[in-house]
């Protein structure tokens, strides 16, 4: 009978198959009659002995460790016993755990110092992220890309702002990711809540009809706090007072191209105050009265309107009719990316404009976004040459992304875009970029 494993395991032990090699081996081993059986029994005996010796050694080891630990000699902070001076070692060494923690903190500092996070960039500038603790992973994703593409060569600091205190976890991970210094700011409650002149009832009416109409974030109170904060307060935060420039970074955004120059220096040297990479129309339901309120403001303060402004970008009417004679086409610079001069927001024109808007209540009675508010202000208060389009930046914020169109973009060592140029939002029917080019007297497609 030939051996096959199936019938071997199914065969009864009481009916050993003498032809089966496994049964043969089993029988020999049990009887101890063969060399094989003898060696096996001997080996078994040897293993038992070795185990016994090991067991004894283990017990001995445990006793030594316990004794040393008790007397404090092994780790330096034992639990008891008196030392030579008669002092109880547990009390004497009580500070050691604190020392260990301090050493851990010092090690972290050394790690950060060894990263060489001394600022190389020459500008008074910071990367700025308004973010929630729960967005840590998304924050790191965006940070990683900005670091890899740009900041690892410049080590500009990062400033994080939040309406709640940042957790240790958030601080530790983002500090490790940053090549520059990090600072964590808590937003004052007054700047993240409805001002006293806003009626709760009227606000509730708005959220009701907006949620019925499915307006995006239409029923959200915190989204409105966020938009108002970005529109009127972030640059007033203590942490940002020392800077002239900021680069706004949002969690989950992507940066596809190496930036081999300092954009802050570029902005300063070229007298630019505001910049963008994507422009698109805002949902009209969220800003029904933003333009009429702006028209009122412009009438009251004509001195703030720049001569060579970008009205032509934000209206599809004949711009020569002026602010009063035109309607807003809803085009705005997508403010999830911004590199800009903080002093523009600090200036008189914008401060007065924001106060005027804030008193009108549109941040709560409608859902005015910081993007159209910043954009309308930049378009009207700045000469058009002070707004810069970063055509060399490859960028994505869901659901839209863009890639550079110039020859440089095809240098794949600089840009790694996950989509073709044809799929860039620049070419989308909703993109406002063509209006931008028209305003600047350039032909469509030349970037
Ligand atoms: N600290 C804090 N940050 C917030 C809050 N809401 C939004 N943000 C931040 O504000 C920025 C804009 O918020 P988003 O939710 O991205 O708004 P959005 O870009 O218009 O919309 P989506 O990105 O499509 O959700 C992001 O950096 C958010 O992390 C909030 O309640 N607290
Ligand atoms: Mg966003």
Explain what this protein looks like in three dimensions.
The chain has a 5-stranded mixed β-sheet. It has a single domain (125-439), classed as Spore Coat Polysaccharide Biosynthesis Protein SpsA, Chain A (Alpha-Beta Complex). It has 447 residues and is of the alpha/beta class. The protein has 17 helices and 12 strands. The longest helix is centred in the N-terminal third of the chain and has 37 residues, at 35-71. Bound molecules: guanosine-5'-triphosphate (GTP) and magnesium ion.
Question: What keyword list fits this structure?
Answer:
alpha/beta, three-stranded antiparallel sheet, five-stranded mixed sheet, binds guanosine-5'-triphosphate, Spore Coat Polysaccharide Biosynthesis Protein SpsA, Chain A, binds magnesium ion, 42% helix, 17 helices, disordered N terminus, globular, 447 residues
How would the blueprint of this fold be written?
Blueprint (H helix, E strand, L loop, with lengths): L4 H6 L10 H11 L3 H37 L17 H4 L3 H19 L10 E6 L5 H14 L8 E5 L5 H10 L4 E5 L13 H13 L8 H12 L12 E4 L5 E2 L7 H7 L4 E3 L2 E3 L8 H11 L10 H4 L16 E3 L4 E4 H5 L1 H13 L1 H4 L4 H12 L5 E3 L5 E3 L2 E3 L30 H7 L8
Parallel strand pairs: 1-2, 1-4, 2-3, 6-10
Antiparallel strand pairs: 4-9, 5-11, 7-8, 11-12
The site of magnesium ion has 3 residues, from loops.
